[in-house]
Amino acid sequence: xxxxxxxxxxxxxxxxxxxxxVLTALVLVALHxxxxxxxxxxxxxxxxxx
Amino acid sequence: xxxxxAAIDAEQVEAAAPSSRGLRFLHNAGWxxxxxxxxxxxxxxxxxxxxxxxxQQNQSELAAERVEQWESVEITEVVVVPNxxxxxxxxxxxxxxxxxxxxxxxxxxKVESPPDLGAAFALIRIPKLERLxxxxxxxxxxxxxxxxxxxxxxxxxxxxxxxxxxxxxxGHRTTWGQPFHELDALDPGDRIEVxxxxxxxxxxxREVHVVKPTDVWVADPREGAWLTLTTCHPKFxxxxxxxxxxxxxxxxxxxxxxxxx
Lengths: 50, 261
Prior knowledge:
The structure holds 2 protein chains of 2 kinds. By secondary structure, chain A is an all-alpha fold. Chain A has a domain at 13-40. Helices cover 74% and strands 0% of the residues of chain A. Chain A is built from 2 helices and no strands. Chain A has helices at residues 2-8, 13-42. Chain B contains 4 helices and 11 strands; from the N terminus they run ααβββββαββββββα. Chain B starts with a helix and ends with a helix. Helix content of chain B is 30%, strand content 29%. Chain B folds into 2 domains: 44-72 and 116-260, Sortase, Chain: A; 75-112, no CATH class. By secondary structure, chain B is of the alpha+beta class. The chains are: A mainly alpha, B alpha+beta. The A-B interface holds A 31-32, 35-36, 38-50 and B 42-43, 46-47, 50-51, 143, 145, 148-149, 153, 155, 168, 170-176, 180, 211, 213-216, 218-219, 230-232, 236-238, 241-243.
């Protein structure tokens, strides 16, 4: 999947590297929010009552 | 890439791809399981390490914020007349209130101005718990999701630590720095220290129990000065709440509150 994504990135090599870095950062941020939400729902709500 | 290499790659891909429908299904199912496994592994690493890293970073910032808050907080002195057998006595509004000749010597209750929502205003230390010994953990005002990711959260509309009533503080058990991870190790008599702009308030644990997340009665006001700590229970589950109730035994207001009760 990673290789396929790399192949569809447009532009010359230098541009593709930048695009890949930005894309990776976006994926990591998205994963952080998804994992944080999942953690709050499934594991630990912070201990509040009510 | 040359034409020959491209041709070889294409052949390899064709050869690697499953030919029959059943094999293709197994191939796709296998990759789906691998992706799910990587996602789950990422979730575990995120919850155990990444959230704690963020919480530690937040704690450093909150410590500085708390010191600033302590310098700017307004402290009011309230005159308290000890309760009398005939029902008289209580709080006399204002620092210059007088009890009159018929009352015993008035006492001074120190009251700090309420902190802003989300602001760090206290530090909690529990000597028995390694995680909360020494440096302690900063307490912020509020129990919203973001507040609790920064530090332990003081429930608004409950008493502030060191004040008469019931001060409720909640904290994460297994993620976001897990400040209350070992809270179940506390026994009656153990000491909890909460430092605010007024000074250090020392509480002694009186009760430890497990309740439902909807049991809001644990936050009800109580006579005297109490500290109620709540966290998720059991570990890695939000099914119940572990509640530790502690009574104020020493601090800037302890003597006054004891007389008021």
